[in-house]
Amino acid sequence: MSxxxxxxxxxxxxxxxxxxxxMTLRSSGAIPLKRLEVxxxxxxxxxxxxxxxxxxxxxxxxxxxxxxPECIFATRKILLGQSETFFEENGVxxxxxxxxxxxxxxxxxxxxxxxxxxxxxxxxxxIDDVIPSLMCLQIExxxxxxxxxxxxxxxxxxxxxxxxxxxxxxxxxxxxxxLKPYAKAIRRMAEEPCNFSVQNYEASYCRYRKETEIWxxxxxxxxPDLENRRIYFVSSNTHSLINLISGFAExxxxxxxxxxxxxxxxxxxxxxYRDKETSELQRxxxxxxxxxxYEASExxxxxxxxxxxxxxxxxxxxxxxxxxxxxxxxxxxLGKLSASLSGRDTGIGLENWTTDTDAxxxxxxxxxxxxxxxxxxxxxxxVASILxxxxxxxxxxxxxxxxxxxxxxxxxxxxxxxxxxxxxxITAESILRYIDPEMHGIYDNQKAVTVLGTFLQNRQxxxxxxxDGITDMEMEAGPYLSAVYEILESKRYPENESVTFASSSxxxxxxxxxSDNPLSGSRLSTGLALDGVDATYAVTRVVMDRIRNxxxxxxxx
Length: 557
What we know:
The protein is of the alpha/beta class and 557 residues long. The protein is globular, with a radius of gyration of 24 Å.
């Protein structure tokens, strides 16, 4: 691979936008984002395809609104910082502000109830994500405002959401059904233009580490003996691994199916579940997907409360993140789990699992970018030993389709400009037993790149990546590999080097399932939904197989 073509430095327009962003954020006061608009549009980001056009880019608008809190439409000023204490020290009294969260991005926000929003930064990656997201929203908001002003349309206070969506549909040229969830936002966009200002409260590397320590200490309070235990570290999500091993979905399967049968959008899946031609594996995956929908329904809170009680009874502990890092954690006691679930129906066979182990699985909801480095680095400082590290994540592909699986053996990290070569414990052969290869491609020996942000790619960069054989684009693997380097070596990770992990004292695997293909028009503006279910559970099953094999090998020694 050629770092000259793969690094951000090789792309003049992206490099210019990033430099201007950080130069601007050095200011101690609030700065208007409009100052960065020309540089942002000049990048021509693939996710924001129509940034420079007068046409309203609904796909980009939908993408960013899912990654920003709903109160963003009442916000005029955004404060960037690392902790509540830090803001209080700088004269911003945030203790009484309201918590706010985005639906598709795990980041903590505080809103003052009027027009100021605090966005907590867990690492530099959050800045690389938030600023372009705000830029995208501001551009599309102002386009919509101009369209509404030219049309002469006014949305009166008595208009229903359906009517607002219908009228806006004819102006923005977007289907009314897509606009209905944004009725309140449309009213605001029609009334006034957007002019965000951002104030950056100086961040530091040491404070990022401090905030990660606070996150860790919160976990220790819930599991005091964790630091004396051996762990298998998994970075995935908060549902797939737990669904497979707990047996909760199976224990209330009739209830889940009854709920889904009453929902027209889910009833076809119930029919597929009951079809005799549906395999047992596929049936389980459908059940887990429907459970997720059930927990998101009207009665979802009660279902989740029952689920948490059930999981605790079998050795699964959930720990919410209440501080700056919005990274929920699950701790699974493998010995207790195996003993508790003996004879019960689960997504994997636990009858052969040993109960004679003190090992735990520490599963975290995969973090954003550089935060991954701080978390794994912090865990390795504190636990007795790490027996395995497994990273399951979403990725964009430059040739594969949504729901396909990519297994890298080489990763270029745009953060450090390192090229990492490693033997991957996850293999195509191990996944084949859990997925239909006619429906999902499985590609091993892939070259991947860890990018700085989802907005920081344009067609020139993507074509350069293809020329260097890159097929896999994601955001966490490079930072994780930097942390792995520091676990295995006696010095800090290097920069701008080729690094080979010839052998390891623990099992190590990275696998990605494809969420979008930016070159084909399949983009993150639409949810992955069922396309990723089979892939997610296939690779999660393989990770559990690896953990079982490692336990068996240790017992035989």
